[in-house]
Amino acid sequence: MSKNIKSKVIVITGASSGLGEETARLLAGLGANLVLGARRIDKLEKLAIDLKLDSRAVLKMDVTQRVQVQALVDRAIEIYGRIDVIINNAGLMPSSMLDKLKVDEWDSMIDVNIKGVLYGIAAALPYMQKQKSGQIINVSSVAGHKVGPGGAVYAGTKWAVRAISEGLRQEVKPWNIRTTIVSPGAIATELTNTITDEDIAKGMAKTYESALSASSFANVVAFAISQPQEIDINEIVFRPTVQSY
Ligand SMILES: NC(=O)c1ccc[n+]([C@@H]2O[C@H](COP(=O)([O-])OP(=O)(O)OC[C@H]3O[C@@H](n4cnc5c(N)ncnc54)[C@H](OP(=O)(O)O)[C@@H]3O)[C@@H](O)[C@H]2O)c1
């Protein structure tokens, strides 16, 4: 698997915990050159030490700020002169029933889960077009395929990620750029900590009893990156075997 991963320059947003962190660990072990972003720089700095990364390879950034996403991608160019993969992974899931009117949380999900992904595309695409190569991996969810009570806004954002990614896929053919959507089911991370609706939190805790470990996601991402250039893995959906929705 490391054959097509070794020495690739890979940018990951939301690498301070959960899926992003685990993916960074796996890809570093496979010889990738990483540039990692998130708001909690202390966690990124610890990870950089663990993974023996260049100290410039971690950046405090907020994906809701376009200039900060651009700075993350520009950092990859400054250090390595190119960008082979961006994983637009940062996300939030403060799910709630709509009638709770948690409008600020709706806004945050739209800003992080949709606009954050768009800013990642905006930052990386011009470099990838110039290189005539690259891979843009956007993290959606099973919730990008199915919606249930309490999940309307989160699912809406993850549906949007799939729509944007499919449009992107069709547009970037002339530049040899690959696009991948990864849509996981329940995986044990910090994601559910953002839920403030107590009823939803209880239900979610039940669902997450059978959550997978983050390595499941990291392996899927590594699989998509490791394919030969002519193979474009466009979407992977996976869940715990016992997850019914
Ligand atoms: N876990 C699951 O069951 C599951 C299932 C389907 C899809 N997903 C998706 O997987 C992705 C990763 O989530 P996770 O499960 O790994 O949860 P997590 O452990 O909570 O990680 C979320 C990451 O996103 C970062 N982040 C959040 N807001 C940010 C912002 N404004 N700017 C920059 N970084 C930000 C966090 O870092 P900071 O707080 O340090 O900024 C953290 O590194 C999300 O898009 C999520 O929707 C997860």
Report what the structure shows.
The structure is a single chain. The chain has a 7-stranded parallel beta sheet, with helices on both faces. Helix 4 (103-131) links the parallel strand 4 (85-88) and strand 5. It has a single domain (2-238), classed as 3-Layer(aba) Sandwich (Rossmann fold), CATH 3.40.50. It is globular and about 50 Å long. It is of the alpha/beta class and 245 residues long. The protein contains 7 helices and 7 strands; from the N terminus they run βαβαβαβαβαβααβ. Helix content is 44%, strand content 15%. Helix 1 packs across helix 7 (215-226), helix 3 packs parallel to helix 4 and helix 4 (103-131) runs parallel beside helix 5 (152-171). Bound molecules: NADP nicotinamide-adenine-dinucleotide phosphate. NADP nicotinamide-adenine-dinucleotide phosphate (NAP) binds next to helix 1. It comes from Acinetobacter nectaris CIP 110549. Belongs to the short-chain dehydrogenases/reductases (SDR) family.
Layout of helices and strands, plus pairs?
Elements lengths: L8 E5 L4 H12 L3 E6 L2 H10 L7 E3 L5 H15 L4 E4 L14 H29 L2 E6 L12 H20 L5 E8 L13 H10 L7 H12 L8 E4 L7
Parallel strand pairs: 1-2, 1-4, 2-3, 4-5, 5-6, 6-7
This protein binds NADP nicotinamide-adenine-dinucleotide phosphate.
The site of NADP nicotinamide-adenine-dinucleotide phosphate (NAP) has 28 residues, from helix 1.
Family: Belongs to the short-chain dehydrogenases/reductases (SDR) family.
Keywords: Oxidoreductase
Organism: Acinetobacter nectaris CIP 110549
Descriptive key words:
245 residues, alpha/beta, Rossmann fold, seven-stranded parallel sheet, 7 helices, globular, binds NADP nicotinamide-adenine-dinucleotide phosphate
